[in-house]
Amino acid sequence: MTEPPSQQAVVLLSGGLDSYTAAALARAEGFTLFALTVRYGQLHVCEIEAARRVALALGVARHLEIEVDLAAFGGSALTGDGPVPTDQDPDRSGIPSTYVPARNTVFLSLALSWAEVIGANYLVLGVNALDYSGYPDCRPDYIAAFERLATLATKAGVEGRGLRVYAPLMHWSKAEIIRRGHTLGLDYALTHSCYTPDVDTRPCGRCDSCQLRARGFAQAGLMDPSLSPAT
Asked: Which of 60, 62, 172, 189 could cross-link to 35 by cystine, CB 3.0-4.6 Å?
């Protein structure tokens, strides 16, 4: 970071390893964390419980869960509009069917609203522009545009208290993220990444998210602690 962090930050906490790591990095920078988790109609709803575990491990000041039913609009395999693709190259070109239309914009707007209320100047987001599935709202240009929007659209911005998006993982590979989390002592067994878990919430190992996670741990030279011997 190029400037001192504000005292408080709102972190979008999904229960995945990226948001966990980003939040831990923000905490290490001196932020007091307020965690926001959104139940948006995702089929892999077990990630909500993972977010609760992660929030507890991070010692956040408050963990708020809200419901915004993006499944009502459709348009994504993650909300039940078509099957989740499996056994495909996660690095293939194009925007996959697991893209949820405008999800990060909706989530960041919710976090922005809460940040204004509590006086936080930072929003923490675990997006990544390297090992990701081609989502348009995970790119540096998008983050810069949202920061500009936050400045124009809020009382805090108009009064000179600019709201920033802290996205420390933006240019890191999944392996780099995992290695950094390991040095921070993060327990990735608390997290959930799979888009199509079984009834016991075990990961499928075949969706894009599972493949990117597995590759990251392999390249980091570490074992994924979330995987039981049976999987």
From this structure: 60
DSSP string, 46-60: HHHHHHHHHHHHHT-
| pLDDT tens figures, 128-145 | 887 666 789 999 999 999
* Number of residues that this document lists for the chain: 231
Spatial distance between the Cα atoms of 204 and 66, rounded to a whole number of angstroms: 27
pTM above 0.85, yes or no: yes
- Give the number of C-alpha atoms closer than 13 A to the C-alpha of residue 109, restricted to the C-beta side: 9
**Residue 128 to residues 1, 155, 162, 212, 220, Cα–Cα distance (Å):** 16, 29, 23, 12, 17
> Each residue of 96-122: pLDDT tens digit?
999 999 999 999 999 999 999 999 999
Sorted by where each starts, the structural domains of the chain and their CATH numbers stand as: 8-220 (3.40.50.620)
